[in-house]
Amino acid sequence: MSGYERILAGLTALCAVLAIALPLGVRGDTIIASWTETPALVFPVLVLVLLGLFVLKLPPLASGVLALAGGAIVILELGSFDRGSWGYWFLLATVWLLAWLFAERLSTRLARAPVRNRLAGTLIPVMFGAAILLVWEAVTRGGGVPNVILPAPSNVWNVLTGSVPTLAVDFVQTFKAVLAGYALGCGVGFAVAIAIDRSPFLKRGLLPLGNFVSALPLIGIAPIMVMWFGYDWPSKAAVVVIMTFFPMLVNTIAGLTASGAMERDMMRTYASGYWQTLFKLRLPAAAPFIFNALKINSTLALIGAIVAEFFGTPIVGMGFRISTEIGKLNVQMVWAEIAVAALAGSVFYWVVALIERAVTFWHPSVRGGRA
Asked: Which stretches are transmembrane (predicted)?
């Protein structure tokens, strides 16, 4: 075990000891919950944590299982008192440090493995995301945070599951603009990059112009697009086109210069023309750059469409819903829309990444970064 992991293990053990020694919760002005009044799993789980950490032989899987068990105990304890006391917060810290230790040990093991294990690698972000949600839930409920300030994930989930028809209509309205603007912006950016590459005059004239367009503030151009294209989704698509055009333009131009001089000389040796060299050498070499722009634009497009809906839209759309519900202090609905947007953006990014893996299977980053 490395020195860094020993420090994490020591901190986890200290928090576990304090969680056992201190009371867990408070109801009103009276301390009513200690470890003797908790579910039967609390004490043995914490003892196992201490034993495993003191002997320093707790494997990654055991760390993850104990972190999940501790998280379940934290959730069970939330209904036992009005707010958490010192023992409760040290119990939460123990769970967080265990999850951290699990991710650290698993990452170290994966780095030393001769073959990549995708399933084991997926466990790390899953554990990290679950730990963030657990801490969010525990802090908001155990600390008595008002819903107007920050609702608990469970409250957001209840609103999300109870408002599926509304969220679905908003999602469809917004994503029409996202997909249309994404396709147009990336397509035009790619075409202009090819044209600029072919003409030095266009490179000197259009590249600075594209830089100027990318610097335009979104809140300034969104109302103008609404005035030009109306209140429906085409005006939001126009905003997305402006946001996605420049990243594609710059990345494609950079990618077209990625092929080496030796490869280009070899193509000329075989009497290849411009277009043959472009399609058989330069575009394949530029593929990682192009997909990098596509992944960046997958999130920019969603952000642009949602922000544009703040400045005029029909009575549907994710941006419209966020702006109206925050005015009514319905913060749970706002967070539900944010959750849907985050999920949609993640899926969009994941689809583009899958296509990238299929197209650029030859690239070292796809093959695992090993020669």
From this structure: 38-56, 61-80, 86-103, 115-136, 177-196, 208-231, 237-261, 300-322, 334-355
